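Duplicate of #3305? Posting structure anyway:
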């Protein structure tokens, strides 16, 4: 066997193995990493007074008034995957398709919530505030979690730790940047820390 035939055989075998493997987020297939460990603050604009910083392999906020990390790019249809850690007192979330990137709020975005102690738990962790309820409400406090969010036209799907919590049709907001939140807790008590370890997005 010639060297050229040998190497061709190796390449074909490798291609066959790769063809049988699904692409993981961040390793191809259109996925883009916006946060990966301590890296990623440069991909966002900061709004508000939260003390966002890189620390311990994540992007973290745990003090200050409400604040947001807002993507510099606008998104329409996409899949998003986020790994986050929250305390039981954390009030946070992912605001998608924000109509006003200078003022992030549930009235002008779809807020995929992280708020175990929300006074109205039907729109707490796992829900989209004022759009899609979740009963019973799952809890995210005290551990690492994975959010998977899909926005395709009017269809919005939210999966928390492998369990679908939202599948709804809603057409109020069609496009915009998304934002990560830090906010005070229930009844304006100090909010618990929010940590984002990985955040990846793939446009559809």
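Output from current build:
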């Amino acid at each position: 066997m010639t060297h050229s035939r040998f190497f061709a055989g190796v390449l074909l075998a490798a291609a066959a193995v790769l063809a049988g493997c699904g692409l993981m987020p961040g390793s191809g297939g259109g996925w883009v990493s916006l946060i990966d460990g301590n890296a990623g603050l440069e991909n966002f604009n900061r709004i508000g007074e939260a003390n966002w910083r890189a620390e311990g392999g994540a992007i973290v906020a745990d003090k200050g008034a409400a604040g947001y990390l807002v993507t510099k790019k606008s998104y329409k249809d996409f899949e998003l995957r986020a790994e986050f850690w929250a305390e039981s007192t954390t009030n946070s979330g992912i605001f998608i398709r924000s109509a006003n990137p200078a003022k992030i709020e549930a009235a002008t975005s779809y807020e995929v919530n992280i708020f175990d102690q929300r006074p109205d738990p039907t729109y707490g962790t796992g829900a989209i505030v004022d759009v899609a309820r979740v009963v019973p409400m799952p809890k995210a406090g005290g551990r690492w979690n994975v959010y998977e969010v899909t926005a395709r036209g009017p269809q919005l799907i939210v999966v928390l730790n492998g369990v679908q919590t939202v599948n709804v049709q809603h057409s109020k907001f069609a496009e915009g940047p998304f934002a990560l939140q830090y906010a005070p807790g229930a009844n304006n008590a100090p909010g618990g820390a929010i940590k984002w370890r990985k955040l990846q997005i793939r446009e559809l």
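Confirmed duplicate; merging threads. The domain at 24-203 is CATH 2.60.120.560 (Jelly Rolls). Helices lie at 3-19.
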